[in-house]
Amino acid sequence: MDGALAVHVERHLSDYLEQRRAGMAEMAPSFGSAVESLAAFVLGGGKRIRPTFAWWAWRGAGGAGSGREAEAVLRAVSALELIQACALVHDDLMDDSAVRRGKPTVHVEFAARHRERGWLGTPERFGAAAAILLGDLALAWADDMYVSAELPADRRAAALVPWQAMRAEMLAGQYLDVLTQAKGDESAAASLSVARMKTAAYTVERPLHMGAALAGADEHLVAALRAFGADIGLAFQLRDDLLGMYGDTDVTGKPAGDDLREGKRTLLMSIGLGKADAAGRAADAALMRSALGNDNLDSATVERTRELLVDLGAVAEVEQRIGELTESAMRALGGVDLAEPAGDVLAGLAVSATKRAS
């Protein structure tokens, strides 16, 4: 299964979602069609990063690459993608994002459905309600899918610890994100706190913790994998922030400058604003602050903000932090013995997740 992991994750997700969709369609056909949209969202893209980290932690801690137990572990770690679906659907709604993976976001899709069919009420309110409910459904089904995996009771219980922590940390990160925007908090501490809770913990650290627990790993190995995951997860978010500002829309699936329009106080922006203030560049600082949370942001202001972040040295400083975090993560990974080829694969995943776009 190692060589086609994403394919096997897709298989488990597709089978599970079809089973649940069929059951809902029989009970309530109209809701069954809404579930089809959720399934299309889950299966319509994504790199399956979370199941991949969890799987290789399990393999590194001694899990076999095939057989009945491997299938059970695959089912359990595939459920991570449903937590991710919940986070994305709700995040897009909170940020009022129109596009995800090059397609309309869920709340936009359902608002358009309401509008096209001439239903009563407000299309935007209907779209928001649908997104909330489908995101909640994804989170509920994540639990159901995890619990349904035919795992030994002691292993399921051990992995339930990071599973439960991960759900709470993801939601806490979402709240801190909107709180930081509401308060206009430009501090590096605030941006790093959001990045650690919203991305690092549930994208890398906790999936690694979960996979190791499913294999019955000892505390030393779990601690090392978590240290590796915490630093790589944060580096991954910092790379994502740079891609959000400078990446190709065809690759990222979101319009350039979306983080600015949404008012995201990323570390990149925190450093840029701090450097502008320290250098007495009031006009440049004012321009960047005016871009944050501006729904009508034009391309010229986006481009000027990007130029300023380079000129002020903010991009270079974030790149340096990504490098430092990656190095510390690799030291943690190198400090433990993992069953091969897990060590090399995890190191490769770390490089892939944090490398500079060509």
Model description:
The protein is mainly α and 358 residues long. The protein contains 17 helices and two strands. The protein has two domains: 1-44 and 80-148, no CATH class; 152-358, Farnesyl Diphosphate Synthase. Strands 1-2 form a two-stranded antiparallel ribbon. Helix 3 runs antiparallel to helix 4 and helix 5 packs parallel to helix 8 (153-183). The protein starts with a helix and ends with a helix. The model has no long low-confidence stretch (mean pLDDT 94). One of its GO terms (molecular function) is prenyltransferase activity. Pfam families: polyprenyl_synt (PF00348).
Helix/strand/pairing category: mainly alpha
Query: Can you identify the CATH superfamily of the largest domain?
Result: Farnesyl Diphosphate Synthase
Mean pLDDT comes to 94
Compute the number of helices.
17
Order of helices and strands: HHHHHEEHHHHHHHHHHHH
Number of domains: 2
CATH class of the largest domain: Mainly Alpha
Strand content: under 5%
CATH architecture of the largest domain: Orthogonal Bundle
Helix percent band: over 70%
**Radius of gyration from the CA trace?**
21 Å
The main sheet comes to:
2 strands, antiparallel
Family: Belongs to the FPP/GGPP synthase family.
Protein name: Geranylgeranyl diphosphate synthase type I
Keywords: Isoprene biosynthesis, Magnesium, Metal-binding, Transferase
Pfam family, one: polyprenyl_synt
